[in-house]
């Protein structure tokens, strides 16, 4: 009996010693353990407690919950939160999701304190803004903080990942307010500083048209906007900048001037294109007929635009072969006309043009056409006369052979042939005289 009591006492003492080495757990505790098994629905963890801990799938956050074996392995040391010390089956109910959330809030707190940016995923448009997630923490971005420009449809942001700055944060109320606008502005300011350091006059840069006004267009050349004045859009005349450029268009522009202190940059689009007068001497030849548009009427003639930035003068005496009292009596602004180049002076940037010369050439071409038609008519008349003469000669020859001897018949046929030939000559002379009368004086 004494022996049994001694054994029981030793066993109880051993159990007490073992319990002293075991951890003590309470709901809400954050503890570490080792994974001892993984199934599709749960992860079993050895906590150094008298009972193992169980992490159900619904206590694992995000995409990890959909495939536990892919994210947990036997032997892994993990951190968990104690939900219940006894789940009713003698096991400790654990949560990985709560630990992740606590760690994420700590990360957010550190980021706000250090004014660092964080990466979030924008998920859903709600009233007044956008719901975004930092890992598993739900955050809110007001519509006014989504961009530094007005955005008509916030749905364009759904699914995007973006860097943001924390404006407000309250762990107890699970409230986090973010700003994407602040980050965009900071990035632009940095780009401006870097660009202004390297920018040079005469440099050609690529940009995107951001805004069009009556006096020009603003182009983003890499974080800073420059102005193309309307006079620098084209070598030709421009009524409105929208006739040349459109919002969002990519263009190459030359830097004309800039002030680093005020960040004012003057740009030119036309200077990146060939100046028309520099190539006009090779491109256009004297005597060439081209099409142009009347752009200005003056008392002494009309200015015709051959291409943007290249005008020529049609003197009043060269507008028509007929007398012209005023150019406006014959021409109007915007009218397309055919002109012949009389002279090209690249040095003085002058081009002399003539409409009358084109008119004269057209009449000459018509006259030549009429002469050719008349010659064709004479040829046809000759052929018809010969055919008729031959026919008449054949008839008379047959009659003569019947009434006379062969010699007389031949002589008679020859006389008829001579008569036909004389008739043909007279008709040919008359046709030529008619053609000469029809020619212009």
UniProtKB/TrEMBL annotation:
GO MF entries: mRNA binding; structural constituent of ribosome
Gene Ontology, cellular component aspect: cytoplasm; ribonucleoprotein complex; ribosome
Domain S1 motif: 28-97, 115-181, 202-270, 287-356
Entry's Gene Ontology BP terms: translation
Region spans: Disordered: 359-383, 398-441
Lineage top rank: taxon: Bacteria
Acidic residues bias locations: 415-441
Keywords: Ribonucleoprotein, Ribosomal protein
Database matches in InterPro entries: NA-bd_OB-fold, Ribos_protein_bS1-like, Ribosomal_protein_S1-like, S1_domain
PROSITE patterns: S1
Family listed: Belongs to the bacterial ribosomal protein bS1 family.
The protein, known as: SSU ribosomal protein S1P
């Amino acid at each position: 009996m004494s022996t049994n009591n001694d054994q029981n006492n030793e066993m109880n003492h051993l159990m007490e010693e073992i319990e002293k080495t075991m951890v003590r757990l309470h709901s809400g505790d954050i503890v570490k353990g080792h994974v001892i098994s993984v199934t599709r629905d749960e992860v079993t963890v050895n906590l150094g407690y008298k009972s193992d801990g169980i992490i159900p799938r619904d206590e694992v956050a995000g995409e990890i919950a959909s495939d536990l074996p892919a994210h947990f392995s036997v032997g892994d040391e993990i951190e968990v939160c104690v939900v219940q010390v006894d789940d009713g089956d003698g096991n400790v109910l654990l949560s990985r999701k709560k630990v992740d959330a606590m760690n994420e809030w700590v990360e957010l707190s550190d980021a706000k304190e250090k004014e660092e940016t964080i990466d979030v995923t924008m998920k859903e448009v709600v009233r007044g803004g956008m719901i975004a997630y930092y890992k598993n923490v739900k955050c809110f971005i007001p519509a006014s903080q989504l961009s530094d420009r007005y955005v008509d449809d916030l749905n364009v942001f759904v699914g995007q990942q973006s860097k943001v700055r924390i404006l407000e944060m309250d762990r107890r109320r699970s409230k986090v307010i973010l700003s994407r606008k602040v980050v965009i502005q900071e990035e632009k300011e940095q780009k401006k500083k870097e660009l202004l350091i390297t920018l040079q006059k005469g440099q050609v840069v690529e940009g995107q048209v951001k805004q069009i006004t009556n006096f020009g267009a603003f182009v983003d050349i890499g974080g800073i906007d420059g102005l193309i004045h309307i006079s620098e859009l084209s070598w030709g005349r421009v009524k409105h900048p929208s006739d040349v450029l459109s919002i969002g268009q990519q263009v190459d522009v030359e830097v004309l001037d800039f002030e680093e202190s005020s960040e004012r940059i003057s740009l030119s689009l036309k200077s990146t294109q060939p100046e028309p007068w520099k190539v006009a001497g090779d491109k256009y030849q004297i005597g060439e007929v081209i099409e142009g548009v009347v752009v200005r009427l003056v008392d002494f003639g009309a200015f015709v635009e051959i291409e943007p930035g290249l005008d020529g003068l049609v003197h009043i005496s060269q507008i028509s072969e007929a007398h012209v009292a005023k150019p406006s009596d014959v021409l109007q602004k915007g009218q397309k006309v055919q002109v012949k180049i009389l002279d090209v002076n690249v040095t003085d940037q002058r081009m002399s043009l003539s409409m009358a010369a084109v008119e004269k050439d057209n009449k000459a071409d018509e006259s030549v056409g009429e002469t050719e038609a008349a010659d064709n008519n004479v040829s046809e008349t000759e052929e018809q006369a010969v055919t008729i003469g031959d026919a008449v000669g054949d008839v008379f020859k047959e009659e003569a052979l019947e009434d006379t001897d062969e010699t007389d018949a031949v002589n008679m046929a020859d006389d008829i042939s001579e008569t036909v030939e004389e008739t043909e000559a007279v008709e040919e002379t008359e046709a030529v005289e008619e053609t000469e009368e029809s020619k212009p004086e």
